Amino acid sequence: MIYNEILTDIKPTSSQRDRIIKFSDNLMKIILDYANSLNLDVECKLVGSMAKKTSLKSKADIDIFMTFPLDYSEEKLKEYGLLLGEYCINEVGGKAEKRYASHPYMTGLIEEFEIDFVPCYRINDSSQLKSAVDRTILHTDYILSHMSDKQADEVLLLKKFMSSINTYGANYKVSGFSGYLCELLILEYDNFENTLKNASNWRIGQEIDLENYGTCKNFKDPLIAIDPTDKNRNVAAALTMQKFSEFIVASRNYLNNPSQDYFKDKLVKTTKEALMDEFKARNTTCFMLSFNVPPLPTDVIYPQVNKTTKSLEKISNSHNFNVLNKKYYITGDNRAHIILEYEISQLPNIKLHQGPLISDARNSENFMKKYPDCFVKDKKWAVLRKRPYTNAGKLIDDMLKKENMHMLKLGKNVKEELLKEYKLENIMDYLASVDEREYMEIYTFLHPNFLLNR
Q: Is this model's pTM higher than 0.85 or not?
């Protein structure tokens, strides 16, 4: 494999990087000059992948951290951080937007760049942490002092590979590998190919402890990567078992058949008619529930839609409508979609209800009083009862009524939107007018391994 050719496509050029560094230096100077005029004790630092030379060409976002002394109150840190960030953005004619992580920060759209201006405390080690973002500078300093330029290139290969198989990103939407975790993997295994060779043989509970802290035993995650700057933190905590397993499989696939296509986005080639044919061939019943969601950060809204999906699956199974498969996604128009596929969606009017043991005289008497038509079945009492629901679609529709929603676990924002409007359709009806931009989501529902091989 000619990795240099791939790096040409994914690595920022020297001139591109120099321009970004110069641009960032100018922004930091604006902040420092304004902070000095206000007599504030502030230092600025470029952090993240751009600072570490591990930023992909297509994702050249800029993270500028403004550090404050530990004796500043959290209220003052937030106040001054937002003030300085907004001032800087306005000074260069950008568009400012307040966002939230562990505390609020400013994001600016300046020229073609998206820049985060994040206030944090000036700390020397993890024992001084006051908020989660404080450790970011520690991470940047650690990587800069331990990683060679050659290894930084290997990180780029790993990030691009993971992006193409949809395992890159520690946000809730992906629940995969963070950029920092990719960097630690390269420090552990030295290069991209060796990382994949080792990953091919990973076991659940795989341990990476670069500083030999010996704290892996404190965690029970699929992958345990101890933060070199904090012995009590697992950098891979956000990684789900699903994405852990997908990366292992994709690594094996790549090593068996290396291809440059693993460093490119894989596109779906299908049609509406082909998708319909596949659903018909499965001979299951599939529903699509669609509803609006507010334009909230992915780490806020995705957990709510996931919670809703799991709750609908649980109540379906409790009524004997066994869910074979499920998926949720959110489209660019802030519309959530939940697919529920049922082995059986229509049931008989009656069901067998088991009672107490015949030998349990007291409970037998109570059961016979409650159900006069009960009968002996082997060693227990039993009765045939009418089902509350014989159709899965009717069950879902009823559960989404205001008076029944208490039986579901719904996020606050999702509940509000479902009360306003939703649409429940058979998948065939939905596909009749589906936007082709959703083909990938629906195709990967039918073919979950689609992105894992080339």
A: yes
